[in-house]
# Entry
Amino acid sequence: MIRARRARIVATLGPASREPAQILALARAGADVFRVNFSHGSHADHATSIARVRAAEAELGRPLAVLADLQGPKLRLGDFIDRSIRLKTGQDFRIDLDPRPGDASRVCVPHPEIFAALKPQAMILLDDGKVQLRVLSCGKDFAETVVVAGDALSNHKGLNLPGLAIPIPALTTKDREDLNFALQVGVDWVALSFVQRAADMAELRQIVQGRAGVLAKIEKPAALEALDEILDLCEAIMVARGDLGVELATEDVPVVQKTLIRAARTRGLPVIVATQMLESMIHAPTPTRAEASDVAGAVYEGADAVMLSAETAAGDFPLEAVTIMDRIICRVEQDPRWPELMRAEYPVQDADADALVAAARKAAEAASTACLVAFTTTGQTALRLARSRPLQPTLALTPHLWAARRMALVWGVESRITPPILDPEDLARIAVEQAMESGLAGPSQRVLILAGLPMGSPGAANILRLAHTPRR
# Structure
């Protein structure tokens, strides 16, 4: 089952989409990667969902990826006596470490690290910024604030400190337990939430030890200041616009999104654009025009994937959300100007393999070229091709199921499992057979082959070969 598009779709599983028939329908409609959100649900729930994704993969005959999204150190309020309150603009309000239930004058914030980071005049945003506090004075276990923007507030709402780096580890005790479980059940990607520094990703990599791809969610301004170091230690990134949009000025978010996509593409790292992409489809069968333009904008920028969150996890129209996202992507990629935009961001070559990829990309522009075929052990050769954004699809042939699944996230790459190639003379025959069997090439077309000698050596792409499919 080949996608008629290059950008990929990530769909989040949840109560609205975790049944076997629903997962299969989402995959048929266009989902390439299924996100398992460890902020909700039990390990038993997630194990069942992942098993169902694997069953759908077997039914479809194409690799599907599972992305485990760790909750991270989400900062939340404590409880209120009556479960909720309403704060008025201009009133005083105290936050502290006192565990007693709060009221309209104070509430517990059970995170000592917050008080270590607070300073007078710092802003505290509650419930995604609906309530805004300014710190008047603070100590090691309290902060006296004034309400700048009031609204209703209930138990356990989230808390953000824009502009402040919080001395809290990115991997909580819960995250470590979830990560151990995710690796045991064999997820393909692990996303770390609230990354602030390169050390956060280094810690994750140390635990994962190559058993899954590691992905940094960029949702804290501190991460932008250490972006190069973070990118050195991750294998993909997510532009997580939810918390990022709370902590940055609204007008900065689109600029940051473009900056992150460009940085990831330059390095050849898959990049996902996430949060509120088709938000209205949680309860409506069609998106707003602005949402459709938002998805299209990410595709025009060359993002590897766009993500659905609550739309598929808890929404009323999960299948429709995936279907319309697929239609938007396909329509953008049919735009005559779209190829120009893909070429405009072509990255600088920095290795011999990149020169070979550049030659392959140029040769693929010939009208008779049906597809590129990359023989790859770990997926690196296919990633190099995807980095250059060739307009023809790339068929990645690998002997490893884990590599094929990880490549489900990568722009323009269709991955398939083949036995290890021992004889270089078999390259052309196998490439042509697989390209035709997959439906990527028809009779009398040209296939461009990228491989490396010795066969099976990761990252050793050093052969560019032409092959032709048989005539009718």
